[in-house]
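Retry 2 of 3 after timeout on previous attempt. Resubmitting structure tokens to design endpoint.
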């Protein structure tokens, strides 16, 4: 059953077409990767999916109930409420807030009290705040951050900041998770741990995952299907073993093959 269906997605910045006729259909539970050189348009695709950019043309359909909703034109917070969450290439935590506060803020998307309940501090407000607190601690426990809950997030080591950003994304209860270069800046052991974590959270949280990554070890190791972008165009799509041997992909990354003299 399809969860996401992207049709002919394109965007222009002035006279530059950054992404051209991008198409992608994802089944529920799939783990798909997008790769390509710097400037290929990968993060631009994520920005259109999450409402940061409005496409020049094309449609983005997300399954909602028994049908599909077009995400084009919707605000980022609305798209988040519909079940799409993301992480960023450059970590974007609330750096002056504690680890626990970072996750609790994300949980407030699902808060079951209104402004009146918050102002009057009704019993329902306190029950809901306790639920959010407990759920946030549960996520921190999963990601090995419970003992860091009171620390200011900017003081965490880099790898733990990455885990916190992932925990915060999951706090919004997504169905579709967008990971933008989650292995950036990680050492080899952290990358191995990340791969295991991606596999685990997909199963544990029943997620569909779309991944941008430059580390081929990660892409080839966790993705079931890969799309390759170059100058905004999709130049290849297929299974990891096929993408590795694709001449267009090799040329885009490594330059043209030179014949033996």
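Retry 2 succeeded. Sequence:
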């Amino acid at each position: 059953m399809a969860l996401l269906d992207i049709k002919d997605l394109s965007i222009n910045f002035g006279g530059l077409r950054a992404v051209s006729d991008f198409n992608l259909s994802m089944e529920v539970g799939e783990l798909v990767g997008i790769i390509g050189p710097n400037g290929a348009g990968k993060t631009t695709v994520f920005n259109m999916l999450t409402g940061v950019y409005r496409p020049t043309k094309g449609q983005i359909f997300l399954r909602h109930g028994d049908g599909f909703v077009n995400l084009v034109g919707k605000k980022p917070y609305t798209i988040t409420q519909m079940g799409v969450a993301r992480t960023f290439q450059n970590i974007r935590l609330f750096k002056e807030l504690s680890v626990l506060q970072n996750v609790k803020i994300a949980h407030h998307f699902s808060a079951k009290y209104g402004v009146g309940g918050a102002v009057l501090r009704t019993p329902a407000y306190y029950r809901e705040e306790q639920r959010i607190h407990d759920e946030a601690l549960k996520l921190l426990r999963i990601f090995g951050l419970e003992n860091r809950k009171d620390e200011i997030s900017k003081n965490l080591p880099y790898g733990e900041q990455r885990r916190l950003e992932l925990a915060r994304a999951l706090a919004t209860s997504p169905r579709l998770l967008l990971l933008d270069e989650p292995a950036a800046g990680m050492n080899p052991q952290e990358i191995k741990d990340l791969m295991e974590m991606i596999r685990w959270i997909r199963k544990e949280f029943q997620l569909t995952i779309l991944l941008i990554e430059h580390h081929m070890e990660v892409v080839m190791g966790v993705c079931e299907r890969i799309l390759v972008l170059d100058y905004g165009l999709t130049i290849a799509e297929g299974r990891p073993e096929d993408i590795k041997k694709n001449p267009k992909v090799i040329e885009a990354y490594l330059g043209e093959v030179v014949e033996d003299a």
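Attempt log closed. The first strand starts at residue 2 and ends at 13.
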